[in-house]
Amino acid sequence: MFRVIALGAPQHLVPYHAVASMTDLITNVSALTFDNRFVSDLPGDTETSERRRQVLGACWSAVAPTPVAAPHLMAYAHEVAVMVGFTEVDVASQQFADVFGGNALLPGMQPYAACYGGHQFGNWAGQLGDGRAMSLGEVVNARGERWELQLKGAGPTPYSRTADGRAVLRSSIREFLCSEAMYHLGVPTTRALSLVTTGEPVLRDMFYNGNARDEPGAIVCRVAPSFIRFGNFEILAARNDIALLTQFVDFTIARDFPHLTGTVSERRVAWFTAVCETTAVMIVHWMRVGFVHGVMNTDNMSILGLTIDYGPYGWLDNFDPTWTPNTTDASSRRYRFGQQPAVAQWNLMRLADALRPLFDSTAPLQDALARYHAVYTAQHDAMTATKFGFLASGDVEQTLIREAFTLLFDANVDYTLFFRALGEISDALPELSSTLLLLGDVFYDESALLAHGDALAEWMVRWHVHIVHGGEGFAARRARMHAVNPRYVLRNYLAQQAIDLATTGDASMVQTLLEVMRHPYEDQPQYAQFAAKRPEWAMNKAGCSMLSCSS
Ligand code: AMP
Ligand code: MG
Fold it and tell me: Considering just the CA atoms, what is the radius of gyration of the chain in Å?
């Protein structure tokens, strides 16, 4: 039996040291061990009001969640709850919903909002910061792992600028489900513990076209070893606060990269190199599963190479490297699928710029950036070869791969379904005329199929000859391909269906999708419908093919 500290003062911020003196409640929520190094090791803002402001000489501001009317736990991720240290009894308690809806704190929590800046759509945007995210503290679990808990949508902070610090249900469901889907797909990502509805409306103009309306509000608690972003470093460099930048870099290395060894300067080089490498690995995974982040601003880039800040992201249905789900980015398509590797590199260059004052010369930074390119290229080639079932990635394979991607685009083929179907093709191939039937229902456009179907069938024959010649055998090949080619991804229209239902108070599809996405590489016959290509009706429906930053 442990204490929850109730937040009694609604509608304005209370610094956490004041919160600690508020009413204590006895609850059933398990004790967690907090070790809040971000706030204990780094300088904080001297002002504790919610006044929006530039925060200088500090990495964080003390904040408190603004209580909500009726916190209700709509969904939670069991594995994450266990990982953090909660039991089923904890999760079932009203106190759990109170804490993760922002109405109470657990003993040891010290809520803060981090100060960071960022390059948005290619331009330096100055101070951004956690405008609606609030870290509650860093849990050290029974296995000694550090997991930072962070609410998204728990009310205003000094970094909220003109906005309200809240999040709507649709975006919260998308973040909750996608974090977990990505994790189970094997993509480095922040996790999601809980999805709490607030019982309060949030006013949003979904497409910035003057049609603002009230939407249900919700709060996600996301979980990661660290929420530090490229922008945390950039803001300190932009302000020429080199002393604090140096302290912050060394803090990050000590807390988040404890395995790095050597002198201080050796560790800094190894650290930035590691950031370049893990970022490359993350992008390779995005390309593998067909994920488009949608807002790859430097404030949305994790120092641990985790996918972070699920906003107007999307999943490829038909293979189209020029596609972006983000309507805010519709004109320049800066963050389109095929551009992601180059944007990540550009973002790393902005981080390198920020770190420059800590290095004697640019050489180690250049070398690390070269590692990004090298790791990305090597891993991307290997990954793509495996998607096609190849055992090598030489000239023959690369040619077949290039041809295939052109055909997938021209023939308007579903990215996920194509690769899964390819993995099901045995060592015997039927006649050319029926080859395409092996792919199943993967085509979106009859005229594109008519124009390019023959070429695709002919490509499949050449692919098949090569693959059979490899001698691996069907069973082994199928297992290898299916391990990298998911059957289930969180298609935009599926998330939208779950949202539409949840908006009526029915969370069943959120729960079902969470369950399906826990095993994305397994055929789950009872959930076959969730593997289907995007239906016609979803083509131009809001939330299914286009999203805005408004959330
Ligand atoms: P994002 O596009 O979600 O990465 O957010 C960019 C910046 O805007 C960050 O500083 C966010 O904290 C801030 N922001 C986004 N939405 C809100 C909101 N509803 N209230 C306050 N700040 C927000
Ligand atoms: Mg962000």
Answer: 24
